[in-house]
Design goal:
Elements (H helix, E strand, L loop, with lengths): L28 H4 L3 H14 L5 H13 L8 H16 L4 H9 L1
């Protein structure tokens, strides 16, 4: 049982490429209509305003942004909202209980 020579793989024009890396694949209209940097700015602003007194109204708005990810194939908005909440809770550890409450909601 010796080793057989195997030809190296060749890249072809119609090879499979993950959609997240394939810039030629158009996004669905729902993903085109929500600029990612806009979502990021708005969620950051809402997290900066989040207090226990304003928790219900502001947390509802943050969850609304996270729910916009329903129409996405890759869930990038949801992942970004989660990342921003995690980052904020690490930066402001004295408010981590409030951020945990937000995650639970």
């Amino acid at each position: 049982m010796g080793q057989e020579h195997v030809a190296p793989l060749e890249r072809t024009e119609n090879r499979w490429v993950p959609q997240i890396l394939n810039s030629s694949t158009p996004l669905p209209k729902s993903e085109e209509s929500i600029p990612f940097d806009s979502v990021q700015r708005k969620v950051k602003a809402l997290l900066n305003k989040l207090t226990l007194e304003k928790f219900d109204s502001i947390s509802d708005q943050i969850i609304d942004f996270a729910n916009k990810s329903r129409d996405e194939r890759d869930g990038r908005i949801l992942r970004e909202v989660i990342r921003l909440i995690f980052e904020k809770s690490c930066d402001e550890s004295n408010f981590c209980a409030m951020y945990a409450q937000l995650c639970r909601k």
